[in-house]
Amino acid sequence: MPSPTCYLLLHPSRTCHRLLPPSPRLPARCARLRVSCDVPRQGGDGPKRGVIPAGPGKGKKQVVFFDAAPPVAQQGDGEDGKGNAPEAKKDGAALRALRRATKRTLSVLSNLPLAITEMFAIAGLMALGTVIDQGEPPSHYFEQFPEDNPVFGFITWRWILTPGFDHMFSSPVFLGLLALLAASLMACTFTTQLPMVKVAKRWSFMSSGGSIRKQDFAESLPRASIQDLGVILMGARYEVFTKGPSLYAFKGLAGRYAPIGVHVAMIFVMAGATLSATGSFKGSVDVPQGLNFVIGDIMKPKGIFSVAPDVFNTEVHVNRFYMEYYDSGEVSQFIAIFHFSTLMAKK
């Protein structure tokens, strides 16, 4: 015959004498027990519950005693036999931490004062780039900003060459600010502008007059018709929705997309400026009439993404260069005649 299953209902508010020898895990005061046992009785269809009554009390807790040890999957309250948390819980905690970090980062990047500060910093660097000569050899800055006579008492050539302000628009500081501003624009678009568009596309119908009168602007038109009002609003370029005796209309949804378009346009402009600053070439040469030069010999890369195209293997021969004049003696236009040939073709 199977052993009965026992339940202990504890009344923490009551006290009783200790029935067991003292143990370091058992407190000096214990709870009064209410014991109920499921035991098989004669003449019954199955085990029934016999209850040993106890005094009334609050805060009952149920303690379950099993006939056998619980399965391995239940050991350690969801842990394995070695006391380690399951891999699923570890993955879930890591995923939650990643989501919190991503949300916090987007919140910081989408901050409007931060974006304004970034734009002012970029504008200041651009103004500084027009004042400082760009693309000159280091000796030029040694002469213009000497250490023995610094400009404004502290600006020397180190302030120009160390951060790369001699090539301002491809310097790490300038490109880093552009990247930070682009990240702020994208964060603002995804966390603010797109949700605003989704909210603006929703509509709801108010069924009670009290809720309508609580709006900022409310008017009562006893003799108005819903159909006529809808036609009038559609003529005023409103989007109109009707549901039974209710009408909902809105306009200006296209204006919700305007900030998104501005952000996308700014990102494209900054991406183009970055690609131009880091992937282009610059060079100049003075060639007398009748001589040749190779394009690749005079064009120098401006950034880390500058890749020389095949056209740099082209040799240019200056056949003739002359000017045309007006009758008054002023120059009308410059005319140059070149002959192009590839180095591979010549070989």
Which regions have little confidence, pLDDT < 50, spanning 5+ residues? 1-55, 57-68, 74-79
The order of strands across the largest sheet is 3-2-1-4
Radius of gyration: 41 Å
The helix count comes to: 10
Strand segment count = 11
Strand content: 15-25%
Mass-distribution shape: elongated
SSE topology string: EEEEHHHHHHHEEHEEHEEEH
* Sheet/helix structural class: alpha+beta
Explained architecture:
The protein is of the alpha+beta class. Among the domains are: 69 residues, no CATH class; 64 residues, no CATH class. It has ten helices and eleven strands. The strands form four sheets. A four-stranded antiparallel sheet has the order 3-2-1-4, with no helix packed on it. Helix 5 packs antiparallel against helix 8. The longest helix is centred in the middle third of the chain and has 29 residues. It is elongated, with a radius of gyration of 41 Å. The N and C termini lie far apart (105 Å). The N terminus is likely disordered.
Give a short synopsis of this structure:
This protein is an alpha+beta fold and 347 residues long. The protein is built from 10 helices and 11 strands. Among the domains are: 5-73, no CATH class; 283-346, no CATH class.
SSE layout:
Blueprint: E1 5-16, E2 30-40, E3 47-51, E4 61-64, H1 87-109, H2 112-131, H3 138-144, H4 157-161, H5 172-200, H6 209-213, H7 226-235, E5 239-243, E6 246-250, H8 253-279, E7 281-282, E8 292-294, H9 295-298, E9 300-301, E10 314-325, E11 331-342, H10 343-346
Antiparallel strand pairs: 1-2, 1-4, 2-3, 5-6, 7-9, 8-10, 10-11
Helix pairs in contact: 1-5, 2-5, 5-8
